[in-house]
């Protein structure tokens, strides 16, 4: 019976243990559910079902390691972090734009012209005064 495994010699059957399943293919043994690739979680394994691997949304589940000054973007099996405008860095570490420069977000920072000054966390060249 699907969801049960047993011993062909004794004829005994019992429900498959957690994280195992038994299909109706005629094999008596319960099979361990396969693991999923990084960034995915197995859902629905047990009984007669082998389950599926579902993407983990690290951003909405707050398991990402993005800076608090970064935007998290989920992708299949992964995520990325991008610094917000006014900050510069790799997304996991974002620091305020330096004095006399401006940052549009991400990892780029540009200096204001030598005769101009920009406030800290300036987001555009137009802010250089």
Gap from first CA to last CA: 78 Å
Q: What's the pLDDT, averaged over the residues?
A: 80
Largest sheet: 2 strands, antiparallel
- Which ranges are low-confidence, i.e. pLDDT below 50, for 5 or more consecutive residues? none
Decide which structural class fits the backbone.
mainly beta
3D shape: rod-shaped
Order of strands, widest sheet? 1-2
Gyration radius, in Å: 27 Å
Strand content: 35-45%
Tell me what you see in this structure.
The structure is a single chain. This protein has strands at 4-7, 12-15, 20-21, 31-32, 40-46, 49-55, 70-75, 78-83, 87-89, 94-96, 101-102, 110-111. It is an all-beta fold and 129 residues long. The mean pLDDT is 80.
Indicate the topology.
Elements: E1 4-7, E2 12-15, E3 20-21, E4 31-32, E5 40-46, E6 49-55, E7 70-75, E8 78-83, E9 87-89, E10 94-96, E11 101-102, E12 110-111
Salient structural properties:
12 strands, 129 residues, two-stranded antiparallel sheet, mainly beta
Entry summary:
Helices cover 0% and strands 37% of the residues.
């Amino acid at each position: 019976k699907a969801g049960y495994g047993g011993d062909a010699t004794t004829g005994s059957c019992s429900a498959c243990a957690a994280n195992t399943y038994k299909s109706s293919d005629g094999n008596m043994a319960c099979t361990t559910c396969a693991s999923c690739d990084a960034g995915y979680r197995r859902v629905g394994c047990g009984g007669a079902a082998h389950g599926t691997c579902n993407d983990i949304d690290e951003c909405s589940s707050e398991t990402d390691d993005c800076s608090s000054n970064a935007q998290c973007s989920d992708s299949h099996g992964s995520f990325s972090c991008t610094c917000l405008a006014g900050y510069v860095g790799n997304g996991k570490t974002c620091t305020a734009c330096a004095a006399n420069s401006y940052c549009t977000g991400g990892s780029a920072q540009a200096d204001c012209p030598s005769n101009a000054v920009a406030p800290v966390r300036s987001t555009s060249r137009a802010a250089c005064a």
